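Outer membrane protein with beta-barrel domain structure dump, as promised
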Amino acid sequence: MNLKKTVILVVAFFISTLTYAQEQEKKEKENPKWDIGMEGMLGFAAGNDFYAFNVGGPSLMLRLNDDWKIGVGALPSFYIKEGKTGAKLGVSPRIDYKHFVLIAPFFHFDNPDKWVWSIGLGYKFHKKNKTK
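structure tokens r here:
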């Protein structure tokens, strides 16, 4: 009977140590439901009696290093041409350096059938990475 009590006590001891040996989970900091910020590119270009406010659209880029990229992209734009306003999709080669963009958008106009070139600068907004 003494051996039976000893075995029961040893088994109960091991079971109780297993239940307390579990590591407690650390609660991670909850992220806010809203994380509002701007991402994308805003630019301004000017040509011969032509001005355009551009936003960055889809682009194909070749990354040279962390700071420099070159490529081509579509630029949805609001323009002023000869005192008239409108909206057009421009196409532009672009050179990106960190947050700054050199653009040379061109636009096609049907009446008269011609292409309008311009050159401008833009600024890229990025989401800031949170460090832990």
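The radius of gyration is 31 Å.
lmk if u need the other ones
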